Every structure is written in C-alpha cells, then in structure tokens.
Amino acid sequence: MSKSSNAYGAGIMAKNGKAFSDEYFAEENQVFHESNEVVLVLKKSDEINVIVDEYLLGDHADENPTLVVEDRAGYWWLKATGKIEVDCAEVAEILGKNFSVYDFLVDVSSTIGRAYTLGDTFTITSELMGLDTKLKDLQS
Amino acid sequence: MAISTATKAATDALAANRAPVSVNAQEVHRWLQSFTWDFEKNRTKYPTKYKMANDTKEQFKLIAKEYARMESVKDERQFGSLQDVLARVDAAKRVHPKWNETMKLVSNFLEVGEYNAIAATGMLWDSATAPEQKNGYLAQTLDEIRHTNQCGYVNYYFSKNGQDPAGHNDARRTRTIGPLWKGMKRVFSDGFISGDAVECSINLQLVGEACFTNPLIVAVTEWAAANGDEITPTVFLSIETDELRHMANGYQTVVSIANDEAASKYLNTDLNNAFWTQQKYFTPVLGMAFEYGSHFKVEPWVKTWNRWVYEDWGGIWIGRLGKYGVQSPASLRDAKKDAYWAHHDLFLIAYALWPTGFFRLTLPTAEEAEWFEANYPGWHEHYGKIYEEWRARGCEDPNSGFIPLMWFIENNHPIYIDRVSQVPFCPSLCKGASTLRVHELNGKKHSFSDDWGERMWLSEPERYECQNIFEQYEGRELSEVIAELHGVRSDGKTLIAQPHTDKDGKLWTLDDIKKLNCVFADPLKSL
C-alpha cells in the first residue's frame, strides 16, 4: 500500500474502531480544512487504462510525484497535490488513433477540484479558476 | 449547362483557398463567442436574490456537435456492455440477493433526483445571463434526461434478467408506501426546484452533485462490484461522466455571484441549509444501503463519508473558497455525528416498518454484527441486542405474528417524522444528532429532529406542509394500505417487501399482516 498522504487509506483512514472515532470527533475536525489536493475518478476503459499505465504512471510520472492512483474496482481513483494534466494529443500518439479531449471526457467520472479543457489538454487544478485565475479561451 | 456567376465565383474561391475538412471543436467554441450574445437584460421566470455575473465561463468549452458525439459514445459503450457481454455471462443473476434488493431502492430513487434535475437546470438556464453559463446548464438539462432513462433502465434490466424482480419492475407505483419516499422527495425534488434559483443550484450542484454524487454514484459502484453486481458500475460510472460538468456548473454559479454583495449576506446560510438538507437524507440512507444492504463490506460508511464529504468536498471545494468568505457549514458537527450513527438509527426503523417497503431487508448476521461492533464500538450494546431479540421472536417468519414495529410500541419508543426532512426518527433510541422538538401552528402539531430543520421551518413554515405517513394513513390498517398502494406480487397476496432474502424462507402475505391488526396512529396526537 502506498505511504503517500494522498493515498486512499492514508491518515485517519488507516485507523479503525475507537482510534478512528477519537480523531473523527476531535474538536479540530469539526470544521473543514482547506486542501490543495485534487481528486480524479476515471472509469476503466481500453483507452483510460493505457492513459493511466503509460501516460500518468509512465512518461509523465515525474511531473507530479504526489500523484497516487488506486484501483477501486470499476474505476481508477487518482489524487494529487496541485494539479493533474492530460495532453490528449500525446495520448493520441500512444493510442495510435485520433483522441481528442472530448474523447477523454467520455470516461472521466468525477472531479474534485477545478477541471477544465484548453485545446487538447485536460486539467484539474486546486487553483480557483474564474476567481484567482482567469479561464482562458483557445487563442487563434 | 452554364453555371451562374455566383457559383463560378465560389468555385474559383475554393480552388484558391481550400475549405478545411474539419474544424477543431474549441475553434468553433471561440468562433461562437464572437457572436453578440446579450442576455443581460432578459427577464427570467425564476429570479434570484443574487446577481449572477454576465461573463461567467463554462469550463469544458462544449459545442453541440462534440457534446452529442461524446454522449452517443457513452451510450454505445454502456448499452453495448449491458446487452452483449453482461447478458451473455448472466450478470444480473450473479448479484448477491441482498444487493439486488438494495438496487431496487438506489436506482429508482436516483431516477427521481435525475428527473427533478431536468427542471432544476432548465430553471437555471432561464435565470443565468452569461452565455457560456447558459450553455453549461443547457447541456446539463440534456444530461439529466439521459440519467433519468439510465436509472429506469437499471431497474428494467434487473427485473428482466435478474432474480426476484418484484420491486424492480413496479417501483414507480409502490415506492410511495414507506417512510423513505417523502424524505427523498424533499431532498431530490423540493431542494432542487423550489425557491431561489441560486439556492437551488447550491442544493443541486454544489452540494448534491459535487458532494453527494461521489458516494451515491461513484463509491456505490465499488460496493456493487464487491457484491457481484457489474451492472451498476457500468451504468452509474457512465452517469457520473456527466456529473463533473455539473459540479463545474455549481462552482461557476458561485463564481458568478462571488462579487455580488448579496453573497456575503446570504451565501453561508444558503450553503448551510443546502448541506443540512442534503446530508440529512443522504447520510443515513446511503449508509444504510451500503452497510445493511450488502453481504460483502468495502469499508465502514463513516470512512466513505469522511473521505468524500469531509476531506475532499469540504477541503477541496468549500475550504478553498474560504478566502471568498465561504465558511464550513455550521451544521457540520451534527452531520458528522449523523455519518457515524444515523444510518444505524434509520435501519432500526426501516426494518421495523419493512412491510411498507418495495424491497426485502435482512437482519445483520452474526458475522456482520462483529463487523459493525469492530467499526462502530458500542453498536452491539445499543442495536445488536435489539436485533437478537427480534430474531428470537421470529420476526422473519410469518407464523410468528410479530413485526418489529410492535416492539417499538410495546417498549414505548414512539417514531416521529421530522417535518422538514420527512426522515423518521425515534428520539428514545437514536444515537445520531436527532432530538425531539414540537411546534404548533394553526392548530396543527409539527415534530422536528434538529436545530437546522427547525430553523428552516420557523422562517418558511408554509414550505413544509407535506403530510407525513402517520398523518396520511392515520386510523388505517396496515395491510389495507399496502394492498391499496400495490405492495403485493403478481399473485395479489404476497408482499413485495419481506424481512429476509432467504430463498427457502416463508414469504409474508397480506393475510399475515392483517392478523397483526397494526393501525397507523399519529404520535403527535398523544403529546
């Protein structure tokens, strides 16, 4: 099991019974705490499995070492600090077929964070898009 | 034949400058923005106390062509799987019988939420003035139609291909009997489509979708798979591929009002009310469905809730908005208490009222009781002993003449319905954040279970006038109500609901219930 703080079973989730309930009900945990993480849920499919194996955990693994990917039966659960980005033009080369950002969205099941597309790139970020950072349009 | 001057000019121009064979979708999106879209002065039928900005963006740059292509690919994959490989491997018959019952409830009730979301997003489309924001809401309206069909299809698929179809096949007419229906209508219907348009968006998109669809539509697929169900992951994960755009719509709704003075006055109250409204129902019902409606457990519900609701939605969505004045909901402490205990409280009542359901429930086995105690210390002393007593009295056997509702009456544990959420509670037994309080208005008594609903009622009592089941059926005998509302199987006498899933166990009939002479009574009348 991953020891990353972003892992599915990290922190309080590793505790059970009374140890879990003591931390869960602790006074400091009765309000939300700001988080700089993002979560992405990818529905397993022919293309998504390749993207996870060969793109996110392959050629681009060094770009964000905080990224954790876990197998949750029908979907891949991803969590990272800051952002996760997928360049679908590069994915198209790996897959050997046309693959646009809209093809990618066919199997993106959930996002926690601000997700957006620009050109061929899908991004999910902890930045407050539209508030702290302007959402851009494709430039001519 | 001579060609016209215009045709020749066009032909010559194309020869010099070849037309592109295709255009990048995002270039089309940029081109569409060059039109003069001006909705700022449009009147809406659904006003809001907030002022929505006119320049809000839609984060995925959708155009109709790509949207339609994307959704058709999703449907091809989903229906292809269901009608081909999952039919061939007899997937519906491989589902654990307990989970088969759970999906009667989950998919049918979600269908109602999706149906009401069609209206909610249509309303938001009418309210918004930013062209891109309208575009996002419009796509969501279409998504919700798709989701309504998908949820209906899950029940259809199970009833056609699976085991014990009663309940899957006629939930739309039998779901109204029991106490879970009206609470679902409050959270999935009233919460999404009644009142201020932005408040509805906060209920539907910022809380309902960004927060609770993750356990309801994502995490549920892991429980399904663990219990042999490959149908639900196939459909629900496909539904959720649209939800990320809905979450973005909810976030952009907040972006659109962030600079409005009204936001600083109203937003935290609206967010707290929406969070409490949604959690009050989702927290106990989902926890009950997962833990008591499964044979194989994935993890304690409180951990699922802590991950998706508290840590991720709370930290990543709400926590990050702190610098814009958005605060943790004041009701969070009570919500956390509910996430630990309220689903156990609810199952106690749901099992006691099992004849009013459209699905079968089962008591925890000895192995499950151990799991509950290990994960919720104190569970056995409070709940486990009661189940042992019910089982010893033969509650699963129609010859016993005993349904657990009788135990509540014998031991003076009255069950009330919270007027605002319509969720049943038993003040003398519950360990969640519920305590009884009663108000009287115009000669009618109303019971409440918590501060937050009580406050909502005190500020808008006319909004919460729905009869609860004790008022609706008062004075009527239980089997008569079940028969009238079609809670029986095709033989006309055997109940759809049963207190076990044992295929060799005896099934209860209307006659068995009639012998008990259970008559609905409104507990508020005796106060």
UniProtKB/TrEMBL annotation, chain A:
GO terms for molecular function: monooxygenase activity. Keywords: Monooxygenase, Oxidoreductase. The keyword Transmembrane helix does not apply. The keyword Heme does not apply. SUPFAM superfamilies: Monooxygenase (hydroxylase) regulatory protein. Belongs to the TmoD/XamoD family. This is Methane monooxygenase regulatory protein B. It comes from Methylobacter tundripaludum.
UniProtKB/TrEMBL annotation, chain B:
It comes from Methylobacter tundripaludum. It comes from the Bacteria. Keywords: Monooxygenase, Oxidoreductase. This is Soluble methane monooxygenase hydroxylase component alpha subunit apoprotein. One of its GO terms (molecular function) is monooxygenase activity. InterPro entries: Ferritin-like_SF (IPR009078), Phenol_Hydrox (IPR003430), RNR-like (IPR012348). The lineage of its organism: Bacteria, Pseudomonadati, Pseudomonadota, Gammaproteobacteria, Methylococcales. Pfam families: Phenol_Hydrox.
